[in-house]
Amino acid sequence: MRVRRCFHLFIEPREVSRFDMASLLAGGNGLRRERQWVALAPHLEQELEVDALERELLGALSAGDWTDAQALPSHCAVAGTRLLEVGLLLHDNDDAPGGFAERDATMREAYWWGPAALVHRFGRWQGSDSVVAMEANGLTTAAGLCEKLGPPPAEVGERGAAAARLPLPHARADDFDALLARRATCRNFDTARALPLVAFAQLMQRVFAARVRVEADGVAAFLKKNAPSGGGLHATEAYLIVQRVHGLAPGVYHYHPVDHALEPLPAPDIALDVLARTAVAGQHWFADAPVLVVMAPRYARMYWKYRHHPKAYRALLLDIGHLSQLLYLCATQAQWGAFVTSAINEVDIEQAFGMDPLREGPLVVCGFGWRAPALTTAEFDPAGAVWQASVSRSP
């Protein structure tokens, strides 16, 4: 049997503080600090503690060349066995579907830049309720934030004296300015009102549809959309949780940007409203939206061009920003509310939509639909551009 190290691997020296009664009774501060080595490998779902010998063995083995296991020093036998069991070392006889070797091969073939893979994989949530966490820590209001965290940095960065600033003329507001002024994150959706199918389809077309498809040498194809994309690759997919659209069965879908069509997906194992709330990590004010859109890049498409590139993941984040802002403006133009949040349970979403997280995964969830007739959850609308106007809005 031959072995080698997994392709992407980071070792972190970590210090953990624990309560120690003996220290407290002896006149100390009651804390015991323990140091450990933690292995972070993006092809795995969890971080792993390693000891000094395991750490050194991982550093001594190649991630590209195979080494005969019999050639390893005898004192490394136990360490090597354990590293094979947890997937930090791989052997050339591992052909199990979904096994460590296959998952490591997927990471190699996707051309991830290692630090980006690390941040992406270990920043994912599963089963988190961000609302409960914020309420427990008293972080749901500005007053609570300041009390717990102290004053924030200034709201504006200044690089000179006020007297030295050069005032710019204020342009006269037009209809587009009025549209921009009405854009405000919606936290109050009308749970009794469905979206018209035609208007829903129009928003999807404006935000996600391909305007033109261009083939290059009969090998590669590129799409022209209303939003820009890094490298012109448009790697981000739109997955939908449809709750209330006239003429459309509630369920989960994938949007096809060339055919401008929905692809029905298998029903999730949990109720649709539970999935919506789980997806947005307990933010019930967002889960009430008639339509939620999961924006999930296909990483292999981006890294096909930008192989092991330190800027590729950043370009994907820019793509998400372009799409979410376009969705906001299109929803506002339709007299709807919209939201975007990155506080999401990525793992739960991946499982519900059948995504392989090494190849494709959610970065944000957006949503849109009719606003509720009354404001029950606070929204940031200090100028009253939304809620003051909504008083006279027809139902």
Q: Helices, strands, pairings?
A:
Elements: E1 2-5, E2 10-19, H1 21-25, E3 31-40, E4 48-50, H2 52-60, E5 67-68, H3 77-86, E6 89-91, H4 100-110, H5 114-122, H6 130-136, H7 142-149, H8 175-181, H9 197-208, E7 212-216, E8 220-224, E9 236-242, E10 251-256, E11 261-264, H10 272-279, H11 284-287, E12 291-297, H12 299-305, H13 312-333, E13 337-341, H14 346-353, E14 364-369, H15 387-390
Helix pairs in contact: 9-13
How would you explain this protein's 3D organization?
The chain has 395 residues and is an alpha+beta fold. It is built from 15 helices and 14 strands. It folds into two domains: 2-110, no CATH class; 177-390, NADH Oxidase, CATH 3.40.109. 33% of the residues lie in helices and 19% in strands. The strands form four sheets. It has a six-stranded antiparallel sheet, sandwiched between helices. Strands 5-1-6 form a three-stranded antiparallel sheet. The chain is globular. It starts with a strand and ends in a 5-residue tail after the last helix. Mean pLDDT is 94; it is low at 391-395. This is Dehydrogenase. Residues 181-370 form the Nitroreductase domain.
